[in-house]
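RECORD TYPE: inverse folding
INPUT: structure tokens
STRUCTURE:
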């Protein structure tokens, strides 16, 4: 999950390696995509949600994502943010943490951030937020092996 245009769907495709099953959320025309991925030797469901900027939902897309997060018992949130606009995205990260949700922060589009001369100390950010932080470039697959490892270490075993 994350804000619009952060690369959520590109990352979703990289993780699942399949075309998605798109479904409309009941009572809306907003689409939620679901797929399967093998991570850490286990098959897990991966959900690609509509973008949102805050848990204080305003748009229908945000309401659908909020409802899914709060009502479906999501085990682990992979919060995808545009690394070029990190400051704007951290508001939602903090809301998720404060709500007691298990979060992995993904700084996507690191290549674009680097072209702008931006560098991000992911280890320090992880210490400050007390959550795992992984840098990726979803379009090329950079950082995906580390992301899979971090997800495997943080997802709960069903049952």
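DESIGNED SEQUENCE:
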């Amino acid at each position: 999950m994350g804000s619009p245009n952060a690369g959520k769907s590109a990352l979703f495709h990289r993780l699942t390696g399949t075309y998605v099953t798109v479904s409309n959320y009941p009572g809306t025309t907003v689409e939620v995509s679901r797929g399967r991925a093998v991570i850490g030797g286990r098959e897990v469901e991966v959900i690609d949600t509509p973008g949102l900027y805050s848990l204080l939902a305003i748009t229908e897309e945000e309401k659908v994502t909020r409802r899914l997060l709060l009502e479906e018992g999501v085990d682990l949130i992979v919060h995808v943010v545009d690394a070029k606009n990190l400051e704007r995205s951290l508001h939602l990260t903090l809301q998720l943490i404060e709500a007691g949700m298990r979060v992995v922060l993904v700084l996507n589009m690191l290549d674009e951030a680097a072209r702008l001369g931006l560098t991000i100390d992911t280890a320090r950010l992880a210490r400050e937020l007390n959550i795992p932080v992984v840098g990726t470039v979803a379009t090329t697959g950079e950082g995906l092996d580390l992301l899979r490892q971090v997800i495997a270490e943080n997802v709960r075993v069903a049952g």
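NOTES: The mean pLDDT is 88.
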